[in-house]
Amino acid sequence: MSVNTKVIRVLRRNLKQSLRNRHLHEAENLIDQLKMEDPLSLETRGLELEFLIAKERWREARTLAEQLHRLHPGSARIHFLCGRLKYRHKEYEKALHFFEESNRLHPHWITQRWMGKTCTQLGKFEHAEALLLSLVDAHIAVNLDLAWLYERSDQALRALAHVRCYLENRPDDPFAKDQEIRLKAQTVQPETLSGDIELLIELDEEIPLGMLPAYLSFLLESGQTPSARDFLLKYRSRLDTNTTTSLAWVCYKLQAYDLAMDLFIQGFPEKIRDVKYLSALESAARHCNRIAELIRQYENSAGEERRLYGRIKRLQMDLGK
């Protein structure tokens, strides 16, 4: 084996480990070295695409994905990465097509897991369940995918069981802990949950973020909209984007459109390319007569995301401009 071949193997191994551990600065240095040593190989280009996806450099990732798919139509790895790119942009039908083709070319449990996750996003719950259940005994992380599937299909108790199964093996996972709190909040009596949170508020204790969507839903469904408004006014600035988004969807689905719009706007900078999110934001703005305010928000951000210009024009038509 030549020295150059040994160097390439080491660089590939280290780069894969850096990507797996999300050490992206280290990965960037390694991909630059690998491109110098082995610039044209399919494996190098595939690792570069994986790196661009991890770094969220979407324009470069799309260009490279299209090129690699055209040049290497028989590569299961390239089909898989194209699927990951489409999934990240919520183009789930296209993502599923890529994952299925990847699995046809080279069956692999990771690809099948992503097929299950994508089917969940598409609402194809029975197909997703069959795929994920076939994997979960051998791969503990799939419990989290099943938990999301069952939560999406309004089976909170089954979802909670899978999260707890996962936590038995990985008790320190912060994401799973948060998921457990959120699901527990969905399975207790609303009055009990409300009492627990109000006691925390009275004691000025920190409220677990995962409990908030169920609590807000209880307030709105029981006609306590002023209390919901006061609660959000007090705590909204403390919320992370994921919690803000969850609360926005609660308000939107329960037709508290003014509250929904405030929360959607708060999460807007990180959801600027999420078509479903923007559609709900615009619908909320129409329902509470705040279209002009939303147009100003879009105008401030259109330089970053040019597709907002089309949305601005449609909103202006709603105002008769």
Tell me about the largest β-sheet: none
Unreliable segments (pLDDT under 50, ≥5 consecutive)?
none
Relative helix content? over 70%
What is the CA-CA span between the terminal residues?
A: 70 Å
| Structural class assignment | mainly alpha
If helices are DSSP runs of H or I spanning 4 or more residues, what is the number of helices?
19
Estimate the strand proportion: under 5%
Instruction: Count every beta strand, where a strand is a DSSP E run of 2 or more residues.
Output: 0
Name the average pLDDT. 91
Which H/E pattern describes the elements?
Answer: HHHHHHHHHHHHHHHHHHH
Shape: globular
Please give the radius of gyration in angstroms: 23 Å
Brief digest:
By secondary structure, the protein is mainly alpha-helical. The protein has 19 helices and no strands.
